[in-house]
Amino acid sequence: MSSHAKAAAQFIKNTERTAWHDQALFFVRQKRDNVAKNIDEWEVLRTKASQIKEHTVSNLEHYLTTFEKNAKANGIQVHWASDADEHNKIVAEIIENHKAKKLVKSKSMLTEECELNHFLEENGTEVVETDLGERIMQFLKLPPSHIVLPAIHVKRQEVAEIFNKEIHTDANNSDPAYLTQAARMHLREKFIEADISMTGVNFAVAEEGAFVVCTNEGNADMGTSFANVHIASMGIEKLVPNYESLGIFTRLLARSATGQPITTYTAHYKKPAKGKEIHIILVDNNRTEILKDKDHSNMLKCIRCGACMNTCPVYRRTGGYSYSYFIPGPLGINLSMLKEPKKHSGNVSACSLCYSCSNVCPAKIDLAEQIYKWRQDLDKYGEADPMKKMVVKGMKKVMGSPGLFYAAIKSGRLINHMPRFMVYNGLNDWGKGREMPVIALKTFNEMWKKGEVRSNESSKNK
Amino acid sequence: MNSREKILKKIKSFPIEKTPMPKFDVKAIASEDRIEAFKQSVKVVGGQAVMLKDYGTIDNLVTVLFPDVKRIATNLEGINCATENPDNFSMASMLNGVDVGIVEGHFGVVENGAVWVTQAMKHKALYFISEALIVILDADQLVETMHEAYKREEVYGDYEYGCFISGPSKTADIEQALVIGAHGAKAVTIVLT
């Protein structure tokens, strides 16, 4: 059994919650479908988005240096980090230079990747996540289970409970409007008191030396409105050449993510205000390695909308924590394999190869095709199931010999008449949690030979 | 070697086939009545768009739409109902508690109800901290899609901060239940002049 299947077994124990999780995410998927259907040029947009990213990634040196030059000319301070450690040290240094104590953060999967919060807290900085879902997860001391909807697996009663403990709301009031208002008041204070505001980056625009941060809550904008120092962290793949490219991406991002026509705030940071500072950290942390890998370099096109998770039948029914990497779903399966294949190879079995992720991806990343490729190499990573390996070896022998093949089919029919305990037991994975199909009494071959097979046309004529 | 050089050297060290930039020739459907379509889009994202002519003046509009408010902040001239000019505040935090903020937008986008604003005041907090935000917009300045939006000269202008604001602040982080008013304005009214 793969590590994903083992972890998922925990999640699916609570069937009611599994069904609720599945439906909540499928609802988001349907909202995406509805808005996508209303745009005739949707497929054109996806193709262009894919081409723009491909062009940018294939000219990455040019666009990185162009962005750096223009951002500096705008008064933005540009830093480069090879890995997570260096990124965290740069942030810590900026904090120290300003003798800062309080930091507010808007959502950033890159800082999750770098495990920044933990690092800063150990160094005595107060780190406050300001996205509502992220704040809930921070209170619960758990990582997000989805990249766009961090607390999608948490029930409202659990939010009421933790808010009661942390910010003294009424423990019996789990109304989302009430809880959101309480968080608004609580975080308003944090925004106003903050010394430093951190944000992620959705798009960095090379020709303009500007970067764009998208939120619905306005938490990134609130943060940067009060703190005098703004630190933005971005993976080097977040570049786009120009504003015209954003004409494509801003049409795709929110529609793919939540089914909205655009995020409430699409903020463009171009220059620091008088007396303020903007720092941007360009982070590699393995991205140049992905660039080298022809089979998987498409992963650098990702705009982190989460559509692949919302549509994935395995993610919806097993939740974010069943995956061994901090990013789950089809995106996480691929990124985790690019990071540490031996550690994360259990994730590649969390896929039914339905290819739905590839079909909804706004940047047309071949997510499922790549998962299929990883599976061909499972033996290399020590994850291949010995039982399945044996079965496949046996199958090869049987399929290679017609005599054995027909004998096997005949004996296979016996399963229909076997007592349940012989079919549904620990040895038969296919019989776990589901009924076995009834095996047909006659094979196609037998029917064909007896002339019992008729085409649709001839049966209609009769 | 510093990290900048290390990263750039690594990128240069392996051959990648350079692909061209695609053409920006996306054809989108145009609406028959831009103003009506824009109003509809603003409604979809949780805001409202009204015609100034239906109210006469901004002062009257504020009295009618927000009858019980105390603090009305703007640095725009000719708005008599304003109780304060935030440009006189030394700190952005002094804007905490503003009921209505009144600002100007450059142009609106029909497909998503967004309005492009660039910081035209001392504290950009006004855009977000106001309980209700009023954005004054010339009704002739509407574009159909984001493609046209990113061709407008105002987007390329000399600003520190620019933003497409589409309706009020919102979240659905608790059980996917939509709640208006996460951190930013709880109501956004676009006034078309």
Automatic annotation (TrEMBL), chain A:
PROSITE patterns according to UniProt: 4FE4S_FER_1, 4FE4S_FER_2
Coiled-coil residue windows: none
UniProt keyword Electron transport, yes or no: yes
Species for this entry: Balneicella halophila
Pfam families, sorted: Fer4_8, LUD_dom
Cross-referenced Gene3D superfamilies: Alpha-helical ferredoxin (1.10.1060.10), NagB/RpiA/CoA transferase-like (3.40.50.10420)
Protein name: L-lactate dehydrogenase complex protein LldF
GO MF terms, alphabetically ordered: 4 iron, 4 sulfur cluster binding; metal ion binding
The UniProt record lists the keyword Iron: yes
Segments forming domain 4Fe-4S ferredoxin-type: 293-314, 342-370
Keywords assigned: 4Fe-4S, Electron transport, Iron, Iron-sulfur, Metal-binding, Repeat, Transport
GO biological process: lactate metabolic process
TrEMBL record, chain B:
Highest taxon above the source species: Bacteria
InterPro entries, per the entry: FTHF_cligase-like_sf (IPR024185), LUD_dom (IPR003741), NagB/RpiA_transferase-like (IPR037171)
Coiled coil: none
Pfam families with a match to the protein in the record: LUD_dom
Residues in LUD domain copies: 95-192
Name of the protein in question: L-lactate dehydrogenase complex protein LldG
Species, as recorded: Balneicella halophila
